[in-house]
Amino acid sequence: MDESILLVEEPVTLQRIKEIAGERFGDLVKAVIDIEGGIMAIGGELHADEESFLIQNGSEQKNLWGINIYPGVPKEKMIEFDSMINVRPSQNNRSRSVEDAEIQNKIVEIVNKLIQA
Question: How many distinct structural domains can be found in the chain?
Answer without folding.
Answer: 1
